[in-house]
Specification:
Structural class: alpha+beta
Largest sheet: 4 strands, mixed
Number of strands: 4
Strand content: 5-15%
Helix content: 55-70%
């Protein structure tokens, strides 16, 4: 099936099925960038204290103010704590990024052995879908990023060195220069690449899950045949219908009923329209609901079985009353107007 035939966006059901199979968009470049940012942040915030601690340790060693086991313990502590902190935070970032991108999905189906993935046709299919081209573009972008940082950051930094620093203060200055000229420019480039990769992964995933006309038709058939979906659709329609009745029936001039099976709400505003308009109609439980709303809002209710059935059969909501029913409707409206005048006296 060519990509040109896949013109329709994936339905929610298809997206859910793809998630169950483990077919999700996931950018592997985000985690390394986050880890590097974390490492740089830890280095910036703790470098001075860490160097001062090592300075104190070395001074204690040279002046023999502490025993050798104590010096080794302090050295191990100064080495182990930053590594443990970085490793723990990196693990948390990796898991958090995975959960964020996959939305807590866990599926073993993607790990099943599928020999068709090793075939030449499958490889060509992946290339046609753009995944191979995207991998090449990502590697090319990474190479260019490293090349630019090396050319304009690392090489000038290396040329500015005049031997190894002799003091811890010199080492701290060297570390600060490295962060400003090499580390952070590299982070900015990798962040841009990771963002582009995540966006490309999302586009490829959407493109891969597009549907043909036949697939969309079959999906709709399955959805309509699902009892849960049908029940949910009926509930949504019933809720919309109730909302519609609550808005239209209170504005009616009269409700014609028969007496419980049919109900038609009419609105007549002589200054706005020449003939009455059907604003709501229903039968059985909807008829009872229309009558209930009319009573709650002091809308007159007239029991006219023949007229109610005729209006329900021949008029749609929003349409005027047919000419042959004008006289019957006019009699009801005149009676209502007479009653209102008598009450007003």
């Amino acid at each position: 099936m060519s990509d040109g035939d896949r013109r329709h966006e994936a339905t929610p059901q298809r997206l859910q099925q793809a998630r169950r199979r483990g077919e999700i968009q996931f950018s592997a470049d985000v985690v390394p960038v986050l880890v590097l940012i974390l490492a740089g942040s830890i280095m910036v915030s703790t470098a001075d204290d860490w160097l001062m601690a090592w300075r104190s340790l070395l001074q204690a060693g040279w002046t023999e103010q502490a025993e050798l086991p104590e010096l080794l313990r302090r050295a191990a502590w100064l080495t182990f704590v930053p590594v443990l902190l970085l490793g723990t935070c990196s693990l948390g970032l990796g898991l958090g990024n995975r959960l964020l991108q996959t939305k807590t999905l866990f599926s073993l189906e993607a790990l099943r052995l599928d020999w068709s993935r090793l075939s030449l046709s499958s490889a060509l299919g992946r290339f046609k879908q753009g995944r191979a081209g995207m991998q090449f573009a990502r590697m090319l972008g990474l190479t260019l990023c490293l090349g630019v940082v090396t050319r304009y950051g690392l090489l000038p930094f290396a040329r500015s060195l005049h031997g190894a620093p002799e003091t811890l203060e010199g080492f701290a200055d060297l570390l600060a220069a490295f962060r400003g000229r090499v580390f952070w420019p590299l982070i900015v480039g990798l962040m841009a690449l990771a963002g582009l990769d995540a966006w490309a992964q999302w586009l490829l995933s959407r493109r891969r899950l597009r549907m043909t006309d036949q697939e969309l038709k079959e999906e709709r058939k399955r959805s309509e045949g699902n009892p849960e979906i049908r029940a949910r659709r009926r509930r949504m329609q019933a809720g919309w219908r109730r909302t519609q009745l609550n808005r239209t029936v209170p504005s009616a001039t009269v409700v014609v009923r028969n007496p419980t099976h049919y109900a038609v709400a009419l609105r007549y505003a002589p200054l706005q329209q020449d003939v009455p308009i059907v604003v709501a109609k229903g039968r059985d439980h909807l008829a009872l609901r229309i009558i209930q709303i009319a009573v709650q809002n002091d809308v007159p209710v007239a029991t006219q079985p023949r007229l109610a059935r005729a209006l329900h059969a021949r008029c749609a909501e929003g349409e005027p009353v047919p000419e042959e029913l004008f006289q019957d409707v006019a009699i009801i409206l005149a009676r209502i107007d007479q009653v209102r005048r008598e009450i007003a006296r």
